[in-house]
Design brief:
- Belongs to the GST superfamily.
- This protein is an alpha+beta fold.
- The protein has two domains: 104 residues, Glutaredoxin (3-Layer(aba) Sandwich), CATH 3.40.30; 104 residues, Glutathione S-transferase Yfyf (Class Pi), Chain A, domain 2, CATH 1.20.1050.
- It is built from nine helices and four strands; from the N terminus they run βαβαββααααααα.
- Strands 2-1-3-4 form a four-stranded mixed beta sheet, with helices on one face.
- α1 links the parallel β1 and β2.
- α1 packs parallel to α3.
């Protein structure tokens, strides 16, 4: 049994996809980020960065935070969606770090300035759209002549998929990235993936909570963690 601390965002989807693909039993704990659930002491004890997703493996008592680490932990434990070959396994690790260090943060910043920031953020949106699409180009080149990021369908694909899935809401088009577009469609057609994307779909923040009306979810500082 896995306890899954979740909000319906691209980062939450990454872990939900693997849980659904593995078919493991899990309990979802829906996080109310706009109300400050992420700053409660019990959650900070398992998520020092005050972010979700987080899992707690009830079988071992192990808690894991950060989506890339969670996918690696679950895939290794299950012996699925992670290559046995050491060279390919290293490749998967490199693409996980690419996603969590490049694609994800750039997509997240673009989403903020496109969907939630005050008006007049033209430079910021332009910068992060450029970085987001630069990462699309990295993925496009990687997928040239192959269906998946590394060998067979793996956690590398699951981790990168959500931020490509929402390209349109981020005001980017996949028309210039045919390999990435076809890859997105292959993953989208998987039933487990769509179950994950639809998990608590009605609770998605569609701009109702933004930088103007929610100072808990946005404009965070050290004070949120240092209790000042």
């Amino acid at each position: 049994m896995i306890d899954f601390y979740y909000a319906p965002t691209p980062n939450g989807w990454k872990v939900a996809i693997l849980l659904e693909e593995l078919g493991v039993e899990y309990t979802t704990h829906l996080m109310k980020l706009g109300e400050g659930d992420q700053f409660k002491p019990a959650f900070l004890a398992i998520s020092p960065n005050a972010k979700m997703p987080v899992i707690v493996d009830q079988e071992t008592g192990t808690s894991v935070f950060e989506s890339g680490a969670i996918l690696w932990y679950l895939a290794e434990k299950a012996g699925r969606f992670l290559p046995d070959d050491p060279a390919l396994k290293l490749e998967v690790m490199q693409w996980l770090f690419w996603q969590v260090g490049n694609q994800g943060p750039m997509g997240g910043q673009l989403s903020h300035f496109v969907n939630y920031a005050p008006e007049g953020q033209d430079y910021s949106a332009k910068r992060y759209r450029g970085e987001y699409e630069r990462n699309l180009a990295v993925l496009e080149r990687r997928l040239d002549g192959q269906d998946w990021i590394v060998g067979e369908y793996s956690i590398a694909d699951m981790l990168a998929f959500p931020w490509v899935f929402i390209a349109k809401p981020l005001t980017s088009s996949l028309e210039d990235f045919p390999n990435a577009k076809a890859w997105r469609q292959r993953i989208k057609e998987r039933p487990a993936v769509m179950r994950a994307i639809n998990l608590h779909k009605a609770k998605q923040n569609r701009g109702e909570q933004n930088a103007q009306n929610n100072k808990v979810l946005y404009n965070q500082s050290a004070a949120h963690l240092l209790d000042k």
